[in-house]
Structures
1.
Amino acid sequence: MVNVAILGFGVVGSGVAEVLTQNKKIIENKLSCEVNIKYILDLREFPGNPFESLVIHDFNIILNDPEVSVVAEMMGGSHPAYDFSKACLEAGKSVVTSNKEVVANFGAELLDIARAHGVAYLFEASVGGGIPIIRPMCNDLASNNIVEVSGILNGTTNYILTKMATEGASFEDVLRDAQHKGYAESNPAADVEGLDAARKIVILAALAYGKLISPNSIYTEGITNITGEDVEFAAGFGYALKLIGHAEKIDGKALCMVSPRLIPMTNPLSSINDVFNGILLDGDMVGKVMFYGPGAGKLPTASAVCADIVDAIAHSDGIKLPEFEVATEDDIADFDNYSCRRMFIFDKCGDCTLDSKVAEKCLGCEIGQFAVKGNRVALITEAMTEAKVKEIAGKLNNCKVYRLL
Ligand code: HSE
């Protein structure tokens, strides 16, 4: 029998207890051994809950119990989740987690500790909810040089953007709905301001390029400034507006960013709606591979955590863990050199009878599509660097700029 402890009995933690109970037979048939939930750590009491008798409040009971060999951490936040994970690994217990904040900030260190103690540190649920992405990147795509990773990595914001685009719903109403459904972070600013997606893209970039970049250091722009007008201009040009985490290599150095982007309708990411996530990987050997599924929510995320529990138990005699180290300044590409096509939206100045030819002259770049609605002008430019965008935007009134994918 293998004893498992659950840290954190919130949305995902309670989902893990449910999956381990409801699919007990399926899981145990795969492992040929019994999997028992011995403790559930939480600050709260859960009167009437079927798992009530397992709830404890003292982490040291788990740490000091030699019968517990696998710990599933779903507490959220960096502390004490990082500290508890580290202590468990040092005590020779495998740790599995959905906590992207801990993986994105401390993943390299925790993997080293796990390796040193011959146990597992696994984090399939930290990116893409229920979508298998970490294990495929480590195993099935291991022979590829990953050219580029682009993904819709946050279910809450994709849900909000979908409802805004299809139902004209208000930002606040949809956010409340997403929180109610258990998609949003406890502080939803992490969702809508892009930090959650930033944590996820640095994890994917670490698997792709071997360097873990601090999520707080990458360019991160959320969805709070997107208006219905922006969505309409984008749709008129044939694009969907989505929050995208993107990583690629420029001159041998890794670049990660999060921002709303215009996705051409021919790109499969454009049709990913609601709470679903999608990740498009471009490998030099395999070509483009798409991963798609529920990106947040209790049972989908718990499904990924439980897959890691199964993996940790099945390979308790030694497991191959992902390899990456903390990135240094030298490993990170200069964001100002990043180049892609753009959509500018800005105010017409005075009575100017602006057309695309005049705009090309004013802006000093080639323009593809062009549209005017009342006082607002929108246009799509050729590819240009971030540095060039700043120069052009500085000349325009009330200007917004979106990247194209
Ligand atoms: N708040 C996250 C999201 C949960 O909406 O995607 C899953 O990581």
Note: The longest strand covers residues 239-250.
2.
Amino acid sequence: MHYTGLLDRYHMLMDIPAYTARITLLEGNTPLIPLPRLAEQLGGGFELYAKFEGLNPTGSFKDRGMTIAIGEAAGRGAHTVICASTGNTAASAAAYAARAGLGCIVIIPEGKVASGKLAGAAAYGARVIQITGSFDDALALVVELSQKHPIALVNSLNPFRLEGQKTAAFEICDNLGCAPDLLCLPVGNAGNITAYWMGFQQYNDLKGSGLPRCLGVQAEGAAPLVLGHPVEKPETVASAIRIGRPARGEQALQAAEESGGKIMAVSDEEILVMQRSLAAEGVWVEPASAAGLAGLAAEVRAGRVNLRGQRVVGVCTGHGLKDPDIVVRAMTHPTILPAKYEALEALIDCRNETSLPILPNALYQPNDEIIKR
Ligand code: F0G
């Protein structure tokens, strides 16, 4: 069947006003990609999948919520939307506002937003304002502004964002035939884990699809939900989740507890190692998006989970292209050669290259193993 976007597909399961406009870029319907090699590295004996949300139209999961939040704003006659953002919300809001013909203002922490996100917000035509403060400061400002003026707030405090984002849980259940045993995902402002838990519960009530344990993962330098108090100056390489006062923190803790999971923290090093492991399996995600699976790896290493026979889904929230600088900075400068065949052949040492061992997994995984509707 021709795919026409999340609103068409799941509107019967969304608690949204009838006037919600259909503003779509055909978001959602993202693939659940098997990660057999990473599963082996983590001890094997279980199924591991990445829900690759970086394949949404603007490169992150935010598009799921934005199609609904902007559709609602447009449907009730708003002219302008506003959000605070560490980058992905900004790019997504900008794209959907452009699609709807609405103005868009995004407030970001100065110098703390990855280049692919900032470029996106600008390309889609948003008015970008940097503040000399954190994401948390930016959020407080836009909440106040939207309360005093007729400008629609599209951060995940807006309940319609969650109505859209919960569809990722529906898709996972539809793809696997039931809920996974464990869901691992990064936690920043905590809207996403809240939305997933809503989605899994709703589907379970409706279809008996079961419930996963939710493992929410913060970065050590920005882990208010693990520490039990706000973090005034959050710091992490995973700029998307550099958040010290999560707006939906209570709900995230509740989701973790009710599901029999937990909220934990991992180091920046663990996040970057997992980013590389995922890329080594062909899935390039931005650092924050590797946090969920970095948390899983830490749990495995500490012997705190037994995954035998289980199905585990790691939510990879944003594409690696969002934050190319992190990789470019770390890579060795590529060799420069004259444009001469002999020079290339001499440099590559072709005989040795072809005799390099080829990892079996690199060859055996056919494309049809990628579960996509
Ligand atoms: N992963 C990525 C790539 C994100 O951009 C975010 C949040 C999260 C995870 C965490 O999701 O906030 O629902 O817990 N980014 C927001 C933004 C804050 O402004 O783009 P959350």
Note: The pocket of F0G is lined by residues 60, 62, 85-89, 156, 186-192, 240-241, 286, 288-289, 317-318 (CB under 6 Å).
